[in-house]
Design a protein that fits this description.
It is built from nine helices and six strands. By secondary structure, the chain is α/β, with parallel strands linked by helices. It has two domains: 30 residues, no CATH class; 214 residues, 3-Layer(aba) Sandwich (Rossmann fold).
Length: 257
């Protein structure tokens, strides 16, 4: 292991379970996505996992892991509300990349959610719906993991502008690696097209960012990839990413007129 990386590890504190995240970020600032992925596997072994929702960045990360021969287990939070096109892509990726992608499911089925909470909870309390269908299942899944890889990019939205390549996720007490933090959307798509990788058919229909069916619309602001997510609400994140270590966005009320 590189000596400057070893030093960053030994100078960490108990709050971040031993790694000096700030120092690691200055080391990885100019390093490539591959460098970070390789370091992640060398450091965390089979306790690091890769999360994907089958967005364009996620496809790049899964492909890099395969190309690098890193046996990092991938998973997807299946809210039971994903588009048919997303499931089609999931099948294609598994076949084409020769990998299996683990399903992480909420405890409550949609019928259970209707009985214990409300029918179409996403329409009245999107934060609670995201907590049940995304945040809690992820927290449970990560309980015995040390790190996870995401496709977060700074260029995706204003709220993601200051993400770091390595973050301490205090909610799940894991490290979060964002290897594409400094990639633009153009770079992601150049990569996908140059390797002729499969991608979600909805991207060709005006959806740059794709989540659950009820909360995903075509983007209404071309400068904001995520403007079609919760388009009629002030909510911008589902809650699995706590950006800048600020409390989770609790605004699920409608945008002011
Ligand atoms: S994105 Fe919408 S449907 Fe999906 S879990 Fe969140 S509120 Fe529920």
């Amino acid at each position: 292991m590189d000596s400057e990386i070893s030093a960053a590890i030994s100078s960490g504190n108990s709050k971040t379970a031993g790694l000096n995240v700030q120092e690691l970020n200055s080391i990885f600032h100019d390093k490539s996505a591959d460098d970070l992925l390789k370091w992640g596997f060398e450091t965390f072994g089979n306790t690091i996992v890769a999360g994907t929702g089958f967005g364009s960045s996620g496809i790049v990360i899964l492909h890099r892991l395969v190309e690098l021969g890193l046996p990092v287990k991938a998973f997807c939070l299946d809210t039971n509300l994903l588009f048919h096109e997303t499931h089609q892509l999931w099948n294609n990726i598994e076949k084409e990349f020769g990998i299996g992608i683990e399903v992480v499911s909420p405890i409550l089925t949609l019928d259970g959610q209707k009985i214990h909470h409300k029918d179409k909870l996403w329409a009245t309390d999107a934060d609670q719906c995201c907590t049940i269908r995304k945040v809690l299942p992820l927290k449970k899944y990560l309980a015995n993991k040390k790190a996870w890889i995401t496709g977060l990019r700074r260029s995706q939205s204003t709220t993601r502008r200051s993400i770091e390549k390595i973050e301490w996720d205090a909610e799940s007490k894991t490290y979060k690696l964002n290897p594409l933090a400094d990639w633009s959307a153009e770079k992601v798509w150049q990569y996908i097209h140059s390797y002729k990788l499969p991608y979600n058919a909805l991207h060709n229909e005006g959806y740059p960012s794709i989540g659950c069916i009820p909360c995903t619309h075509p983007a209404n602001d071309p400068s904001n990839e995520r403007s079609g997510r919760w388009a009629n609400l002030e909510k911008t994140e589902c809650g699995i990413h706590i950006l800048n270590q600020l409390p989770r966005n609790k605004n699920s009320h409608p945008k002011p007129e």
